[in-house]
Design a protein that fits this description.
Blueprint lengths: L1 H7 L5 H52 L5 E4 L6 E4 L2 E4 L4 E8 L2 E8 L5 E5 L9 E2 L1
Antiparallel strand pairs: 1-4, 2-3, 4-5, 5-6, 6-7
Length: 134
């Protein structure tokens, strides 16, 4: 009777549980580095987006003021704001954007605080008007 009761017990064996734990560990070892890489790409995308948005703000400012704006916008957590004459530019959280004006164009650089890369654009005649790593 005791022998029959032991064979009827339901549940997982220790080996089955260990195999599941090992499989979960292997999947986690693959996924965690991918997540870190994706986070870095998201930070860079935020900085590149702010550089592009500042380009649009520069052109809007130039169309009303006939001069490009120069200055910097930095945000700690909630997004910094710059008043550009009648126009306003708001940076994304943790992104610093700097614009330098010239008579025939401008340069803009942007960097997210958690990223190692900076992104730049130069619209002066000797520059490159595409957003690129600098």
């Amino acid at each position: 009777m005791l022998r029959t009761k032991l064979h009827d017990s339901k549940g997982f064996t220790l080996i089955e549980l260990l195999i599941v734990v090992v499989i979960i560990g292997i999947l986690a070892a693959i996924a965690i580095p991918q997540f870190a890489s994706t986070k870095e790409k998201a930070y860079d995308a935020s900085a590149k987006s702010d550089v592009r948005n500042m380009m649009a703000a520069q052109e809007a400012h130039f169309s009303t003021q006939n001069v490009y704006w120069g200055g910097s916008v930095s945000s700690a957590t909630d997004g910094g704001t710059a008043s550009m004459g009648g126009d306003t530019f708001r940076a994304s959280p943790n992104v610093a954007v700097t614009a330098t004006s010239a008579t025939n164009g401008y340069t803009i650089s942007g960097k997210h605080n958690a990223s190692s890369r900076s992104w730049c654009v130069d619209t002066t005649p000797s520059g490159n008007s595409n957003v690129q790593s600098c």
